[in-house]
Amino acid sequence: MSESDGRRPTDVLANERTFLAYLRTAISFIALGFVIARFSLFQREISVVAHIATPNQHASTLLGTAMAIAGVLVGAYGAFRYVASDAALRRGEMSAMPAGAAIGASIVVAVIGVAVAVELSAFQ
Question: Which of 5, 6, 55, 69 qualifies as a FRET site for 14, CA 20 to 30 Å off?
Answer without folding.
Answer: 69
